[in-house]
Amino acid sequence: MSRRRAAILISGRGSNMVSLIEAARAEDFPAEIALVLSNRPDAAGLERAKEAGIATCVIDHKAHPTREDFEQAMDAALASHAIDFICLAGFMRVLTDWFVERWAGRTVNIHPSLLPLFRGTQTHRRALEEGVLVHGCTVHFVVPELDAGPIIAQAVVPVVPGDTQESLAARVIVQEHKLYPKALRLICDGTARLENGRVVFSRGWDADAALHSPG
Protein backbone atom coordinates (compact mmCIF):
# COMPACT_ATOMS: atom_id res chain seq x y z
CA MET A 1 0.00 0.00 0.00
CA SER A 2 1.32 3.41 -1.00
CA ARG A 3 0.79 5.80 1.88
CA ARG A 4 0.00 9.46 1.26
CA ARG A 5 2.28 12.00 2.91
CA ALA A 6 0.39 14.38 5.20
CA ALA A 7 1.49 17.55 6.98
CA ILE A 8 -0.24 18.87 10.09
CA LEU A 9 -0.33 22.63 10.59
CA ILE A 10 -0.58 23.79 14.20
CA SER A 11 -0.28 26.94 16.29
CA GLY A 12 -0.53 25.50 19.79
CA ARG A 13 -0.55 22.24 21.70
CA GLY A 14 -1.91 20.16 18.84
CA SER A 15 -4.33 17.79 20.57
CA ASN A 16 -5.86 16.77 17.24
CA MET A 17 -2.34 16.40 15.89
CA VAL A 18 -1.66 13.72 18.50
CA SER A 19 -4.75 11.75 17.49
CA LEU A 20 -3.65 11.81 13.85
CA ILE A 21 -0.12 10.74 14.73
CA GLU A 22 -1.41 7.85 16.84
CA ALA A 23 -3.77 6.67 14.11
CA ALA A 24 -1.03 6.80 11.48
CA ARG A 25 1.08 4.34 13.51
CA ALA A 26 -1.19 1.54 12.32
CA GLU A 27 0.31 -0.41 9.42
CA ASP A 28 -2.93 -0.30 7.46
CA PHE A 29 -3.44 3.46 7.80
CA PRO A 30 -3.26 4.96 4.29
CA ALA A 31 -1.39 8.14 5.32
CA GLU A 32 1.84 8.90 7.10
CA ILE A 33 2.40 12.07 9.09
CA ALA A 34 5.50 13.35 7.36
CA LEU A 35 5.69 16.88 8.79
CA VAL A 36 4.34 19.07 11.57
CA LEU A 37 4.57 22.76 10.69
CA SER A 38 3.83 25.66 13.03
CA ASN A 39 3.65 29.40 12.61
CA ARG A 40 4.66 29.81 16.27
CA PRO A 41 8.14 28.79 17.48
CA ASP A 42 6.77 28.20 20.99
CA ALA A 43 3.93 25.88 19.95
CA ALA A 44 3.82 23.01 22.45
CA GLY A 45 2.84 20.58 19.71
CA LEU A 46 6.28 20.86 18.10
CA GLU A 47 7.94 19.06 21.01
CA ARG A 48 5.25 16.40 21.00
CA ALA A 49 5.86 15.82 17.30
CA LYS A 50 9.62 15.57 17.82
CA GLU A 51 9.06 13.01 20.58
CA ALA A 52 7.04 10.98 18.08
CA GLY A 53 9.94 11.08 15.62
CA ILE A 54 8.21 13.35 13.11
CA ALA A 55 9.96 16.11 11.19
CA THR A 56 9.02 19.61 12.34
CA CYS A 57 9.28 23.04 10.77
CA VAL A 58 8.64 26.57 12.02
CA ILE A 59 7.59 29.30 9.61
CA ASP A 60 7.12 32.27 11.92
CA HIS A 61 4.49 34.55 10.42
CA LYS A 62 5.94 37.49 12.37
CA ALA A 63 9.21 37.12 10.46
CA HIS A 64 7.51 37.76 7.12
CA PRO A 65 6.35 41.21 5.99
CA THR A 66 3.19 40.01 4.26
CA ARG A 67 0.77 37.09 4.41
CA GLU A 68 1.81 36.22 0.87
CA ASP A 69 5.50 35.95 1.85
CA PHE A 70 4.57 33.82 4.84
CA GLU A 71 2.46 31.44 2.77
CA GLN A 72 5.03 31.16 0.02
CA ALA A 73 7.55 30.08 2.66
CA MET A 74 5.05 27.50 3.95
CA ASP A 75 4.40 26.27 0.43
CA ALA A 76 8.11 25.82 -0.19
CA ALA A 77 8.52 23.86 3.06
CA LEU A 78 5.59 21.59 2.20
CA ALA A 79 6.97 20.99 -1.28
CA SER A 80 10.42 20.15 0.12
CA HIS A 81 8.83 17.37 2.19
CA ALA A 82 6.80 16.06 -0.78
CA ILE A 83 3.50 16.61 1.04
CA ASP A 84 0.28 15.30 -0.52
CA PHE A 85 -2.29 16.49 2.04
CA ILE A 86 -2.54 19.20 4.68
CA CYS A 87 -4.46 18.77 7.93
CA LEU A 88 -5.19 21.99 9.80
CA ALA A 89 -5.24 21.29 13.54
CA GLY A 90 -5.59 24.47 15.55
CA PHE A 91 -3.72 26.52 12.96
CA MET A 92 -4.64 30.06 13.92
CA ARG A 93 -3.98 31.87 10.66
CA VAL A 94 -6.55 32.68 7.99
CA LEU A 95 -5.19 31.39 4.69
CA THR A 96 -5.27 33.53 1.56
CA ASP A 97 -7.17 32.50 -1.55
CA TRP A 98 -3.81 31.91 -3.26
CA PHE A 99 -2.74 29.26 -0.77
CA VAL A 100 -6.16 27.63 -0.53
CA GLU A 101 -6.47 27.37 -4.29
CA ARG A 102 -2.92 26.07 -4.65
CA TRP A 103 -3.78 23.25 -2.25
CA ALA A 104 -7.41 22.86 -3.37
CA GLY A 105 -8.76 19.39 -2.66
CA ARG A 106 -5.68 18.64 -0.58
CA THR A 107 -6.36 20.66 2.58
CA VAL A 108 -8.77 19.61 5.32
CA ASN A 109 -9.82 21.20 8.60
CA ILE A 110 -11.74 20.17 11.69
CA HIS A 111 -14.29 22.63 13.05
CA PRO A 112 -16.06 22.40 16.43
CA SER A 113 -19.65 22.57 15.22
CA LEU A 114 -22.05 20.77 12.91
CA LEU A 115 -21.44 22.87 9.84
CA PRO A 116 -23.00 24.82 8.27
CA LEU A 117 -24.16 25.83 11.76
CA PHE A 118 -21.89 28.13 13.76
CA ARG A 119 -19.11 28.96 11.36
CA GLY A 120 -16.24 30.92 12.85
CA THR A 121 -15.43 31.17 16.56
CA GLN A 122 -17.22 30.73 19.89
CA THR A 123 -19.15 27.76 18.54
CA HIS A 124 -19.98 26.20 21.92
CA ARG A 125 -21.29 29.46 23.38
CA ARG A 126 -23.43 30.05 20.31
CA ALA A 127 -24.80 26.50 20.39
CA LEU A 128 -25.89 26.96 24.00
CA GLU A 129 -27.41 30.37 23.27
CA GLU A 130 -29.42 28.96 20.36
CA GLY A 131 -30.76 26.12 22.50
CA VAL A 132 -29.81 23.30 20.12
CA LEU A 133 -30.09 19.78 21.52
CA VAL A 134 -27.23 18.34 19.48
CA HIS A 135 -23.81 19.78 18.69
CA GLY A 136 -20.59 18.29 17.39
CA CYS A 137 -17.70 18.64 14.98
CA THR A 138 -17.07 18.55 11.24
CA VAL A 139 -14.12 17.65 9.02
CA HIS A 140 -14.28 19.49 5.72
CA PHE A 141 -12.20 20.44 2.72
CA VAL A 142 -10.85 23.98 2.93
CA VAL A 143 -12.13 26.57 0.46
CA PRO A 144 -11.57 30.35 0.35
CA GLU A 145 -14.81 31.03 2.26
CA LEU A 146 -14.29 30.36 5.97
CA ASP A 147 -15.70 27.03 7.24
CA ALA A 148 -17.71 26.56 4.04
CA GLY A 149 -15.94 23.67 2.31
CA PRO A 150 -17.45 20.32 1.32
CA ILE A 151 -18.12 18.13 4.36
CA ILE A 152 -16.25 14.84 4.73
CA ALA A 153 -17.42 13.60 8.13
CA GLN A 154 -19.32 14.74 11.22
CA ALA A 155 -19.75 13.55 14.80
CA VAL A 156 -22.68 14.48 17.03
CA VAL A 157 -22.94 14.87 20.79
CA PRO A 158 -26.01 15.69 22.89
CA VAL A 159 -26.37 19.04 24.58
CA VAL A 160 -27.59 18.28 28.11
CA PRO A 161 -29.21 20.41 30.81
CA GLY A 162 -26.62 22.30 32.82
CA ASP A 163 -24.01 22.25 30.06
CA THR A 164 -21.44 25.03 30.06
CA GLN A 165 -19.16 26.03 27.23
CA GLU A 166 -16.39 24.06 28.96
CA SER A 167 -18.38 20.87 29.51
CA LEU A 168 -19.73 20.92 25.96
CA ALA A 169 -16.29 21.61 24.50
CA ALA A 170 -14.83 18.71 26.48
CA ARG A 171 -17.43 16.34 25.05
CA VAL A 172 -16.91 17.60 21.50
CA ILE A 173 -13.13 17.33 21.54
CA VAL A 174 -13.33 13.65 22.46
CA GLN A 175 -15.21 13.17 19.21
CA GLU A 176 -12.80 15.39 17.29
CA HIS A 177 -9.97 13.06 18.23
CA LYS A 178 -11.94 10.12 16.82
CA LEU A 179 -13.36 11.82 13.76
CA TYR A 180 -10.24 13.46 12.29
CA PRO A 181 -8.27 10.22 11.82
CA LYS A 182 -11.37 8.53 10.40
CA ALA A 183 -11.85 11.35 7.87
CA LEU A 184 -8.19 11.30 6.83
CA ARG A 185 -8.43 7.55 6.29
CA LEU A 186 -11.54 8.00 4.12
CA ILE A 187 -9.76 10.55 1.94
CA CYS A 188 -6.45 8.75 1.60
CA ASP A 189 -7.86 5.30 0.89
CA GLY A 190 -10.16 6.71 -1.77
CA THR A 191 -13.44 6.06 0.05
CA ALA A 192 -14.24 9.79 0.06
CA ARG A 193 -13.36 11.94 -2.90
CA LEU A 194 -14.12 15.43 -4.08
CA GLU A 195 -16.22 15.70 -7.24
CA ASN A 196 -17.72 18.92 -8.59
CA GLY A 197 -17.50 20.66 -5.24
CA ARG A 198 -19.09 17.84 -3.21
CA VAL A 199 -17.76 14.83 -1.35
CA VAL A 200 -18.88 11.49 -2.75
CA PHE A 201 -18.33 8.09 -1.17
CA SER A 202 -17.48 4.75 -2.74
CA ARG A 203 -19.52 2.80 -0.20
CA GLY A 204 -22.69 3.27 1.78
CA TRP A 205 -23.33 3.13 5.52
CA ASP A 206 -26.08 2.40 8.02
CA ALA A 207 -29.00 4.59 6.99
CA ASP A 208 -30.86 3.79 10.22
CA ALA A 209 -28.20 5.09 12.60
CA ALA A 210 -29.40 8.01 14.71
CA LEU A 211 -28.73 9.95 17.90
CA HIS A 212 -31.81 11.00 19.87
CA SER A 213 -31.56 13.93 22.25
CA PRO A 214 -33.04 13.70 24.85
CA GLY A 215 -32.05 10.04 24.71
TrEMBL record:
GO function terms (MF aspect): phosphoribosylglycinamide formyltransferase activity
Residues forming the catalytic site: H111 (proton donor)
Binding site for N(1)-(5-phospho-beta-D-ribosyl)glycinamide: G14, S15, N16
Known pathway: Purine metabolism; IMP biosynthesis via de novo pathway; N(2)-formyl-N(1)-(5-phospho-D-ribosyl)glycinamide from N(1)-(5-phospho-D-ribosyl)glycinamide (10-formyl THF route): step 1/1
GO biological process assignments: 'de novo' IMP biosynthetic process
The organism's place on the tree of life at top rank: Bacteria
Reaction catalysis annotation: N(1)-(5-phospho-beta-D-ribosyl)glycinamide + (6R)-10-formyltetrahydrofolate = N(2)-formyl-N(1)-(5-phospho-beta-D-ribosyl)glycinamide + (6S)-5,6,7,8-tetrahydrofolate + H(+)
Binding site for (6R)-10-formyltetrahydrofolate: R67, N109
Site feature: Raises pKa of active site His: D147
Coiled coil: none
Keywords: Purine biosynthesis, Transferase
Gene3D superfamilies: Formyl transferase, N-terminal domain
E.C. no: 2.1.2.2
Cellular component aspect of the GO annotation: cytosol
Formyl transferase N-terminal domain residues: 5-184
Listed Pfam families: Formyl_trans_N
UniProt similarity note: Belongs to the GART family.
Main function: Catalyzes the transfer of a formyl group from 10-formyltetrahydrofolate to 5-phospho-ribosyl-glycinamide (GAR), producing 5-phospho-ribosyl-N-formylglycinamide (FGAR) and tetrahydrofolate.
HAMAP family given in the database record: PurN
Name of the protein: Phosphoribosylglycinamide formyltransferase
Organism per entry: Microvirga lotononidis
Source organism phylogeny: Bacteria, Pseudomonadati, Pseudomonadota, Alphaproteobacteria, Hyphomicrobiales
